[in-house]
Design a protein that fits this description.
Elements lengths: L1 H24 L1 H5 L2 E2 L10 H16 L5 E4 L6 E4 L3 H7 L6 H26 L4 H12 L2 H4 L7 H20 L3 H17 L2 H20 L6 H38 L2 H8 L1 H6 L4 H15 L30 H6 L8 H19 L1 H7 L10 H22 L6 H20 L8 H23 L4 H24 L5 E2 H6 L6 H11 L5 E4 L8 H5 L6 E2 L6 H9 L11 E2 L6 H6 L2 E6 L9 E7 L2 E6 L6 E4 L1 E4 H6 L2 H7 L3 E4 L5 H4 L15 E9 L3 E3 L7 E8 L4 E8 L10 E6 L5 E6 L7 E6 L7 E11 H4 L1 H11 L4 E5 L3 E8 L3 E5 L7 E5 L2 E3 L2 E3 L3 E6 L2 E9 L2
Parallel strand pairs: 5-8, 12-13
Antiparallel strand pairs: 1-4, 2-3, 6-7, 8-10, 9-10, 11-24, 14-21, 15-20, 16-19, 16-21, 17-18, 17-20, 22-23, 23-29, 24-28, 25-26, 25-29, 27-28
Length: 862
């Protein structure tokens, strides 16, 4: 009983120290003065997930349960509460969601540190080692910096749980162990993505393998007999787990493998090998070294790295930071045990390979460019685990401390940083962080040296070490957590989504209760504004992996992809063909003009101008003919916008090619411009003067470049300089090498400027052409196609996010196109009978209709 109370006191003390440090570090967030949202950290950050949290909270408020389908997420998505942290964020309703995001990261820091500390204690480590290990793990780069991403903090908790489960089972069997194992497996299955489950499943099995390799037994014969049983049990377990994983994740892994990110990553494989010894890769490795000493040493979120984008962006940068004391202890772990030395060396060599070789890093990080999503956790875990072994040796027996080795380690760690600071990196390394790192390294060196020679003060010096690690945990991370880039409560309450859009949407919905989508000529948050502001849109953020059918449609219709990342769709605004496919009925703009064709202004609400599409469609319409994807993609990129309004695009082997039939002739726009300007090797940010654009003239800005790029087209009149929101993004995709932006209602415009969308090394574009057409002539084919489709439009009678009902009459066998993203969870009924749906127009849904009048129903199955 006394032993158990002693354990509880030690664990409670560890949790108390971690909680106190967390409270100091996150004090402004706990008070609600700041929110754990970072507007300049984009990739998979909580800023992107805020709209999803909002919709989930709204879903609970409406009593829709824990999962539903909504059209306000992307083009339409199945959303659900996936883990306990998400449940906490959303269960309090739509108010204070942003505040609860910060509370959750606080909980993750405390939980990860507490669980890791418990694991160390159950593994037989001294209380000093356990407390220091918990502090360094909870305040590591993985939890704090990675915590900006939705599931990086969860990953740290899961790995700590896995290690704890291994530790408790090694001590014996009990019902407590079973309960803990079930909880760990539940976290593993629900908290992280499929790719993470696969990679870390292998890592956890590896941990079990290493733990048995290092396990000591008293008798050789007993060791040999038990080892045989262990290998049999372990082998059977691996086979069973492999079968379960293949059954469970294989379909989803196939989907991930087919995604744009993985496919483009595979295409870059050979090029990445060539990048190994480039200056850029060497700088990346130097970045990992520096950020392992202090995550903020080269800047904080929102401040671009000295060599540009990519790994310099803060939360995806390589950093194995897990405490400076731990780094000093890594060499101390080496001793007389050759087996252990070999294992330590192999693990560290593995981290070095993951860090240095871009091609291996690409695969290890899930083809996420050069982001250190997965390798950060692996590298940090290896460094921390080996450092803990070194610290435990010293705590067990102070004479194990190699003082000479300690000071050599201090010199080896600090010297490159100081040389870089006065040489190539002068002005790039933050002096404050450099001083903090140097002071703590020297203090640790002095205290440990004193600890080695002073037996009387041994206990006191252990306490000093704990206090010093606690101060370091707060001091090193303080600037990142409390930097100016975090959103303040005042900013959140007065800006971002509070920009008049919600009021404009409410005004529209009071007059129109049909299904429709809305385009915006500006961004309120980032891309998923619709979920928070209560409308159906066409911009979305679906992660770096992306959704292949959606990205294929986006590319083939020339819709923009922000930051050259196809998981970021910039919407259909200004793209007439796409606006028809998406059932766009309204557009919102900051200026009294709408670049889309045939939109008329109907209202202004709180400085937001509302435009209505005269050619708007409901949720669907019927096609007479179809065309295969292969044939469609053979056509010129400019003609595709005409073709897709005449023939529905179907898969190459689709039975619809025979069932519905292909068109004999497809009309395309083929007219000469009234006037045009063409420039080769155009210098970005240079003004292009044009003859004043007149009423009823359409401007087409054509861009051509050998390399895929994301550009901004800006325009102005003589009376104004460039102003925010008079711009539109254009993506030049590698498949076509060119794209165009079509602008209407530009009367008075006299200048165009092409700019890079984000910081890039690009300074010129191969070719820019600005062509001016007569609007009526330019849209003649479009008008004919739209008029024909309106004759076969589905008349929607009832609709919600999960069910729709409408009627349609067709005079021949046709294909009913529905602006509902293809998903097998939807059920389609025609005249009460279930029918088979097909994927059409890359990402949407189509069903065959026989001649006559029909009642069509669609229902979503949770």
């Amino acid at each position: 009983m006394e032993n158990r109370l002693s354990k509880l006191r030690i664990l409670a003390g560890s949790v108390g120290i971690i909680a106190a440090c967390t409270g100091i570090l996150f004090f402004p967030y706990l008070l609600g003065e700041k929110l754990f949202l970072f507007p300049h950290v984009i990739s998979d950050g909580v800023v992107q997930f805020y709209p999803q949290y909002y919709q989930l909270a709204e879903m609970l408020e409406k009593g829709q349960g824990f999962a539903t389908y909504v059209f306000s997420s992307g083009w339409g998505n199945y959303i659900y509460i996936s883990d306990i942290f998400e449940l906490f964020i959303v269960m309090g309703g739509t108010q204070q969601i942003a505040y609860r995001v910060g509370i959750v990261i606080v909980c993750k820091v405390i939980l990860s540190g507490a669980i890791f500390s418990t694991y160390l204690y159950y593994s037989g480590k001294h209380s000093t080692t356990s407390i220091i290990g918990g502090l360094t793990y909870g305040f590591s780069a993985q939890v704090l910096i990675g915590g900006i991403w939705k599931n990086q903090g969860e990953l740290a908790i899961i790995m700590a749980l896995a290690l704890l489960v291994i530790a408790v089972w090694k001590k014996g069997k009990s019902i407590r162990n079973v309960i803990l194992t079930i909880f760990a497996l539940a976290m593993y299955a629900t908290q992280i993505s499929i790719y993470y489950q696969l990679v870390y499943g292998v890592v956890i099995v590896g941990c079990i393998f290493v733990s048995y390799l290092l396990k000591e037994r008293k008798q050789h014969s007993e060791k040999k007999a038990k080892n045989k049983k262990v290998w049999i049990v372990l082998g059977v377990a691996i086979i069973v787990v492999a079968i379960i994983l293949c059954w469970y994740i294989m379909p989803q892994m196939v989907s991930v493998f087919q995604s744009y990110r993985v496919q483009s990553g595979l295409a870059q494989w050979t090029e990445k090998w060539k990048d190994t010894f480039t200056i850029h890769n060497i700088k990346e490795c130097i970045t990992v070294y520096l950020r392992t000493l202090s995550p903020s040493i080269l800047g904080v979120s929102g401040i671009e790295m000295w060599y540009g984008e990519g790994p310099g962006a803060y939360c995806e940068a390589g950093s194995y930071y897990c405490g400076l004391l731990i780094l000093l202890m890594v060499p101390q772990a080496y001793g007389k045990d050759k087996k252990r030395n070999i294992i330590y060396s192999l693990l560290l060599a593995g981290v070095a390979v993951l860090t240095f070789f871009p091609a291996i890093r690409l695969v290890a990080n899930g083809f996420a460019n050069t982001y250190f999503k997965l390798t950060r956790m692996l590298g940090m875990l290896v460094v921390l685990w080996i450092g803990i072994q070194g610290l435990q040796k010293i705590v067990d027996n102070r004479e194990n401390l190699k003082v000479k080795r300690l000071w050599i380690t201090v010199g080896v760690i600090l010297t490159p940083m100081l040389l870089l600071a006065v040489w190539k990196y002068r002005g790039k390394i933050y002096t404050q962080d450099m001083i903090i790192v140097s002071v703590f390294m020297l203090l640790y060196g002095v205290i440990l040296t004193f600890y080695r020679v002073n037996q009387k003060q041994e206990k006191k010096l252990k306490y000093i070490l704990i206090v010093l690690v606690a101060i370091e945990s707060v001091g090193i991370n303080y600037r990142f957590i409390n930097n100016a880039d975090a959103v303040t409560k005042e900013e959140w309450d007065t800006a971002y989504y509070q920009d008049g859009t919600i009021e404009a949407v409410n005004e529209i919905e009071e007059k129109d209760d049909d299904f429709f989508r809305i385009e915006k000529g500006y961004r309120s948050g980032l891309l998923d504004d619709a979920g928070v502001q209560g409308y159906h849109g066409t911009t979305y953020y679906i992660g770096g992996v992306g959704n292949r059918p959606q990205t294929e449609l986006m590319v083939n219709l020339g819709m923009p992809a922000l930051w050259n990342q196809r998981g970021y769709c910039g919407g259909a605004y200004g793209n007439a063909a796409a606006e028809v496919l998406f059932a766009d009925r309204y557009a919102l703009a900051r200026y009294d003009e709408c670049i889309s064709y045939n939109y008329q202004k109907v209202d202004t609400v709180d400085q937001v101008h509302i435009f209505e599409n005269k050619d708007a469609f409901s949720i669907g319409f019927a096609y007479d003919t179809v065309i295969s994807q292969e044939e469609f993609e053979k056509s010129d990129y400019q003609d595709r916008r005409d073709i897709i309004l005449q023939s529905c695009v179907v898969e190459n082997d689709s039975p619809l090619l025979e069932d519905i039939g292909e068109a004999d002739v497809l009309q395309t726009t083929d007219i000469e411009p009234i006037r045009y300007i063409e420039l080769e090797n155009y210098q970005l940010n240079t003004g292009i003067n044009v003859e004043t654009i007149q009423k009823n003239e359409t401007v087409v800005v054509e861009l051509e470049n050998a390399k895929e790029e994301c550009l901004n087209v800006v325009w102005s009149t003589p009376k104004e300089a460039w102003q925010k929101n008079r711009e539109r993004i254009v993506s030049i995709y590698e498949e076509m090498g060119k794209n165009e932006l079509v602008l209407n209602n530009q009367e008075g415009t006299t200048m165009f400027i092409i700019q890079p969308f984000s910081t890039t090394e690009l300074t010129t574009v191969d070719k820019v052409a600005i062509k001016v057409y007569d609007t009526d002539e330019y849209y003649k084919v479009y008008e004919q196609s739209v008029a024909k489709l309106h004759k076969n439009e589905l008349q929607l009678e009832e609709w919600s996010d999960t069910s729709m009902k409408g009627s349609i009459t067709v005079d021949s066998k046709k294909l009913l196109y529905l602006s509902i993203p293809y998903n097998k969870k939807w059920t389609y009924l025609v005249d009460g009978e279930k029918v088979q749906a097909e994927r059409v127009n890359y990402a949407f849904t189509g069903i065959v209709l026989e001649p006559g009048e029909h009642e069509v129903e669609v229902q979503f199955r949770k």
